[in-house]
Amino acid sequence: MAGSPQASGKLPTDPTTATAAPAQSQFTIPAAAALTLLGEADENLIALEKQLDADIHVRGNEVTLTGAQAAVAFAEQVFTELLALAGKGQYIGADVVRRTVGMLAGDSTESPADVLSMNILSRRGRTIRPKTLNQKRYVDAIDEHTVVFGIGPAGTGKTYLAMAKAVQSLQAKDVNRIILTRPAVEAGERLGFLPGTLYEKIDPYLRPLYDALHDMVDPESIPSLIQSGTIEIAPLGYMRGRTLNDAFILLDEAQNTTPEQMKMFLTRLGFGSKIVVTGDITQVDLPGGQRSGLRVVREILEEVDDVHFSTLGSSDVVRHRLVGDIVDAYEKWQAERDADDDGAQPPSGRSGTSGGRGGRGSGGKNSAAGDGEKGNG
Question: Where do runs of H (alpha helix) occur along the chain?
């Protein structure tokens, strides 16, 4: 079965060992963990068979792995991590199997069981946690830095996880309030042309933040929390002229800020506060070809202490599997388009301009850091 190690956990064939005698490993899984590990109707076992090169045979609670030595050793690692997750009472589905294989096939030394069992919030039996290594690194960065940028495509959990950390900080009394904000410019629509009062015009732009909040806080308590100022949800323009102390401040859809708006927002930071900025630099809706503040802020603040940039990619998408494929297809198309544009540029003095533009575009693709139980972008 074809596939890259990062995508499927399959190991390249070594010609020097291709004719070597197959290796074999046998072990017994605890009876209590058998159903969790193998899945209903052997769903997880089927997923493992598709993603591992070693042959897997299960009889009762006994598992036998057969194949090339490297393939068997890798499969043992996968089973060890999945058993550790089962021992922690974590649900294991085909998606968890896929992510476990992907993490072990990568270069990280972190345990998938530790990554996938890191709980941020639990409410009514539902737990919000990172689902990928990059997501865990993103969450860790929020704990360790005062200002964090979460940059990535839709569905990578950058907003949802930041919201969960905000609620966690409020519950732990690390902050006194949560401030959630978005620029009110999207998809070419202007507020003046929308029907209704100012609140009715603005509300649709802020609705995704309300929706995420309802997953994390008792909905009946939200009106009183908003009325008391403990939670504030407002357009970005309402942040001007303020100093925000003892607050967890989240700016969402930051790709739709101008550089001037981004500077205005970041300088609202007060004592005891934390800022998280999220956005997708491939979906800028600013009119008139204006530069996105999220595109340029990395060039400006990269070397500033206590400011961290986390980049999420298609492998971190936790929505429908097809969303990740769509993100990859668009990135491929954009790369080909950029290459054609660069090839069409005249030589000499004007080439430097196109090179600068290319540098900004590629900056968001550097995999640097780490979506929650739900896939809100």
Answer: 5-8, 31-38, 43-51, 69-87, 94-105, 112-116, 133-144, 158-171, 198-216, 222-228, 259-266, 293-301, 321-344, 351-363
